[in-house]
Description:
The structure is a single chain. This protein is an alpha/beta fold. The chain has helices spanning 61-69, 77-87, 102-116, 130-143, 160-168, 178-186, 203-208, 212-220, 237-244, 274-285, 300-312, 326-337, 348-351, 371-378; strands spanning 92-95, 122-126, 151-154, 173-176, 195-201, 227-232, 251-254, 264-270, 293-296, 317-320, 343-346, 361-364, 388-394. Strands 3-4-2-5-6-1-7 form a 7-stranded parallel β-sheet. Strands 8-13-12-9-11-10 form a 6-stranded parallel β-sheet. Helix 2 (77-87) packs parallel to helix 3 (102-116) and helix 6 (178-186) packs across helix 8 (212-220). It starts with 60 loop residues before the first helix and ends with a strand. Residues 6-24 have low confidence and may be disordered. The structure holds adenosine-5'-diphosphate (ADP) and magnesium ion (MG). Adenosine-5'-diphosphate (ADP) binds next to helix 3.
Amino acid sequence: MHRNFKPSGNNRSRFAPHKRRGSGPKQSTVHYSRYINKAVTKEEDVPYEPTHTFDTFGLNPRTAATLRHLSFTKPSAIQDQSIPPALLGKDIIGLANTGTGKTAAFLLPTIEKLNANPVLSSVLILAPTRELAQQIDAEFRRFAAGQKLFSALIVGGANINRQIQQVKRGPHIIVGTPGRVKDLIDRRVLRLQAVNTFVLDEADRMCDMGFEKDIRTIEAELPKDRQTFCFSATMTPNIKAIVEQFMNAPETISVVKNQTNDHIEQDVVHTRDKAHKIEILTELLSQPEFEKVIVFGETKHGVQRLADNLSNNNLPAAAIHGNKSQSQRERALHSFKTNQVSILVATDVAARGIDVDGVSHVINFDPPQVYEDYVHRIGRTGRAGKPGKALTFVGQK
Ligand code: ADP
Ligand code: MG
């Protein structure tokens, strides 16, 4: 077995505190008019016509068969445009709306490269949250099924000793959150000298969360001779300048349509006070068309209280937020994904990037602080081109 991520030297404990975005209520800076988009322009919604098929990318037959099996019939725009240059070895900044298949856009070329040289290549993927890292890992396992390629998930909140054991087994791919990855580097468990593919998923959010320094430290451990991918739904010029420092003549591929998916119907609900908000929320959630709903709240405590409150009112709700352990978060997400509960109450950080099928509504119980958060929140519905609705609670006119 190859040992690409084998530990170097002794295991010294040097815990690096994980940096998280400061919590506590802040004023939203977004005018409510930006939450209204009833004019859903269906006629203009011409489906993207890809110039490639999954067969003409020249992927190995095994992956191509897996994709057929998964009913991936056509590449999405970001996949169509970024997979060919990625296969040629180019560094890529890929920008595309949420739910448009960015994960496959970087995983498929990565799997190709691993197949070409499974002994000498290894891959490091960083994502902002545990859930997102886990989703990427799950997607990797789906695409690479039966190919003898192994991954390890290195995220905070989960048993570190088990992760250390996994790293020692020499996985081809490490998917992790910056804090824990840095931790394992500091402990001399993780060696990154063999990494020839580095992926930053949602770099802007990682920077928002205060991970910039950790990312720099991790990047400094990587060989300079490597391929780097950065994929995100949103990227400010500032973040772009940061990620470009990690990249070699990157090609930027942007297929961002509108800022919010135009098939998501958006509207506001005027509310008076806290009690009124809960009353309206309860009313909405009791309606049959609110089949599968993510409710966003601002603070960890507020989210937990709201979920408890709903559950006590015959509206069973799961909650995910930063005060929950990894296994609690996993359980909550699982019960929502498998329709055991139809309501998930979440904070921005915990819900970022999660991909759950068939979310009918996103309700912003508390308004997002910045417009980017709004885009990410409502992107939890309307996945893979399906219709979705987003409602944002705002104070009275
Ligand atoms: P993003 O990272 O852009 O938000 P994801 O990579 O999470 O989006 O993809 C959203 C969903 O679409 C996932 O469930 C994924 O498996 C699915 N998907 C991605 N590409 C395709 C495709 N070409 N055909 C069908 N489903 C796809
Ligand atoms: Mg993604």
